[in-house]
């Protein structure tokens, strides 16, 4: 591996590491074993420094034992020559840490983020288990890091699927600075010890009223609660730590480990693969909303726009709040850069059809789209703008209208009405006419209550992965000519052939023949005005002939030829 590639891996690691420390002292002291005695000046001989000059960089980092009997790690970080890291660590030795599960530190930093490293091999110098430490400028901090929070890295890059660190294998500890910020740095350490955390400290779920929670950011809180191990692993794999540690404020709908366990195991494993990182980022950012939104505010919102770019739907009933189809099981965990609401399912970004299904208010619209064979079109890449009438909007149509439109022979008319609600673009409400997929134009009037034709927009800008939904209170009806008897008769034949051909090809000629016979008799009984004498005679002759030939496949062909002949004669009259 050349020096440039190594430097690149180090930089990449900064984006994919997740912050895994507890930055305030635990409520009670933990029994511990000192790892380093800084009162002994000879301890300095046990430490070495490794800077980026091993890769061609020019950063400088060194250590010393101060007069106050502390370890001082200081120097200057340089980004020249693709550099940017400095580190110190102890010489390999058997530290005898079997049975310990936590590392405790007391340190004072300069506000920068350092890594605390654990090494388990004296021969592998480029790999370590590491955990970031966000220091507070000129402030002493007591920090406790569970061993299961350390992440295995090689050349600073996270190694997926690595075994967790085992206490009995730890041979060396150390510190690294690689935050890609040039300039001087200084970290002072007075204590490094191994500790045994109590069960309560390991599994306690932080209460929203706990002031210590408010001093932690979103990632730190997720680590501290112990309920979100899978979520934190996913955040790490997606490289979203810096986003969730940013100043915010952010609102996070956080799925528990049990929520992730509801996903198929193969799905989760696939999402954590490097090649699926874009999809994982989409899913995780779909759980994050800009701003601090409390439970009271959430319960009053119909939807919220996520960092991912699409909308989650919110419903509140009988003191129960749902985000999409997930239930909020704990709300208002206040953190330093936002608020966390715990949910019992993993949210997935949705296309227009899935969004309408989740909302539960568009059953008739979805049934109509299915009857008109438009579901796939509404799930296509887009962008699309859909003016979506609610179930109540369809119920407001004259009695029998919906039932009539859903009849197979009215499929073309139904498709025309539905496509009149769709625009092949993501439009804004700025006072305009917009051309629909049906071909006609809808009038958009943004003044006062926004209206589209005669419908009022009840809820605007529900974002989906392939477009946007605007909820309206009426069904839009384009100016469509009433279909002629000839056009209706042609529709009967088209539908019969559409349904009969797959059956014949599937080895069911008798079912195909039955459909064709029903169509022929329907034409003779219900569409006399559309058929001339020659067409009627052709159909009657076919029905007579199938009584003389009992082979199902031959019956199907006799009827099909007759339907084709009649269809061609009708087309000439259209």
Protein architecture, described:
- The strands form 4 sheets. A 7-stranded antiparallel beta sheet has the order 2-5-12-7-8-10-11. A 7-stranded mixed beta sheet has the order 15-14-20-19-18-17-16.
- It is α+β, with helices and mostly antiparallel strands.
- Strand 25 and strand 26 form a beta hairpin.
- It folds into 4 domains: 3-202, Sandwich (Jelly Rolls); 237-343, FAS1 domain (Roll), CATH 2.30.180; 352-472, Roll (FAS1 domain), CATH 2.30.180; 485-573.
- Mean pLDDT is 82; it is low at 1-31 and 198-213.
Give the arrangement of secondary structure elements.
Layout: H1 3-16, E1 32-34, E2 47-51, E3 60-65, E4 71-77, E5 86-90, E6 102-108, E7 113-119, E8 127-134, E9 140-146, E10 151-154, E11 157-158, E12 172-177, E13 183-195, H2 199-203, H3 211-214, H4 218-225, H5 229-238, H6 241-244, E14 250-255, H7 257-261, H8 265-271, H9 277-285, E15 288-290, H10 295-298, E16 303-305, E17 311-317, E18 320-323, E19 326-335, E20 338-343, H11 352-359, H12 363-371, H13 375-378, E21 384-389, H14 391-395, H15 401-405, H16 411-419, E22 422-423, E23 432-435, E24 441-445, E25 451-452, E26 455-464, E27 467-472, H17 485-505, H18 509-526, H19 533-546, H20 552-573
Parallel strand pairs: 14-20, 21-27
Antiparallel strand pairs: 1-13, 2-5, 3-4, 4-13, 5-12, 6-9, 6-13, 7-8, 7-12, 8-10, 10-11, 14-15, 16-17, 17-18, 18-19, 19-20, 21-22, 23-24, 24-25, 25-26, 26-27
Helix pairs in contact: 5-9, 12-16, 17-18, 17-20, 18-19, 18-20, 19-20
């Amino acid at each position: 591996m050349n020096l440039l590639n190594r430097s690149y891996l180090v930089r990449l690691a900064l984006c994919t590491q997740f912050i895994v420390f507890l930055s305030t002292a635990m409520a009670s002291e933990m029994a511990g074993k000192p790892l380093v005695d800084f009162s002994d000046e000879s301890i300095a001989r046990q430490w070495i420094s490794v800077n980026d000059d091993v890769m061609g960089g020019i950063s400088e980092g060194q250590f010393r034992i101060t007069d106050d009997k502390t370890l001082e790690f200081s120097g200057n970080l340089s980004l020249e020559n693709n550099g940017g890291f400095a580190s110190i660590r102890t010489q390999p030795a058997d530290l005898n840490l079997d049975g310990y599960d936590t590392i405790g530190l007391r340190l004072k930093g300069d506000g920068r983020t350092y890594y605390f490293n654990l090494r388990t091999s004296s021969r592998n110098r480029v790999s370590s288990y590491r955990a970031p430490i966000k220091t507070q400028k000129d402030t002493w901090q007591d920090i406790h890091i569970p061993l299961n929070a350390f992440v295995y890295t090689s050349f600073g890059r996270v190694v997926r699927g690595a075994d967790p660190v085992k206490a009995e294998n730890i041979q060396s500890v150390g510190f690294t600075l690689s935050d890609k910020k040039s300039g001087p740095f200084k970290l002072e350490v007075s204590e490094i010890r191994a500790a045994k955390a109590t069960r309560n400290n390991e599994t306690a779920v932080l209460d929203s009223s706990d002031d210590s929670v408010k001093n932690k950011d979103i990632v730190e809180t997720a680590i501290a609660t112990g309920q979100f191990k899978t979520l934190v692993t996913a955040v790490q794999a997606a490289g979203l730590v810096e986003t969730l540690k940013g100043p915010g404020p952010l609102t996070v709908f956080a799925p528990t480990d049990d929520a992730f366990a509801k996903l198929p195991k193969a799905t989760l494993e696939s999402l954590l693969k490097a090649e699926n990182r874009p999809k994982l980022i989409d899913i995780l950012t779909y759980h994050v909303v800009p701003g601090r939104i409390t439970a009271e505010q959430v319960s009053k919102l119909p939807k919220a726009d996520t960092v991912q770019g699409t909308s989650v739907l919110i419903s509140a009933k009988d003191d129960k709040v749902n985000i999409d189809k997930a239930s909020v099981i704990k709300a208002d965990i206040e953190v330093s850069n936002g608020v966390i609401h715990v949910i019992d399912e993993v949210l997935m970004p949705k296309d227009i059809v899935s969004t309408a299904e989740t909302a539960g208010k568009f059953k008739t619209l979805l049934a109509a789209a299915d009857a008109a064979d438009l579901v796939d079109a509404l799930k296509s890449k887009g962008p699309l703008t859909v003016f979506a009438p609610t179930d109540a909007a369809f119920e407001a149509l004259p009695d029998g209208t919906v039932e009539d439109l859903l009849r197979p022979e009215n499929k073309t008319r139904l498709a025309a009405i539905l496509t009149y609600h769709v625009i092949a673009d993501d439009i804004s409400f700025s006072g305009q006419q917009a051309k629909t997929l049906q071909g006609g134009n809808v009038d958009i009037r943004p003044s006062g209550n926004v209206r589209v034709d005669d419908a009022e927009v009840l809820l605007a800008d529900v974002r989906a992965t392939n477009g946007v939904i605007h909820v309206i209170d009426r069904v839009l009806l384009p100016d469509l000519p009433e279909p002629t008897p000839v056009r209706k008769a042609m529709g009967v034949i088209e539908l019969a052939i559409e349904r009969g051909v797959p059956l014949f090809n599937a080895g069911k000629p008798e079912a195909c023949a039955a459909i064709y016979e029903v169509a022929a008799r329907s034409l003779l009984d219900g569409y006399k005005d559309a058929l001339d004498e020659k067409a009627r005679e052709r159909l009657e002759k076919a029905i007579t002939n199938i009584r003389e030939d009992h082979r199902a496949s031959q019956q199907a062909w006799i009827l099909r030829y007759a339907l084709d002949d009649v269809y061609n004669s009708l087309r000439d009259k259209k």
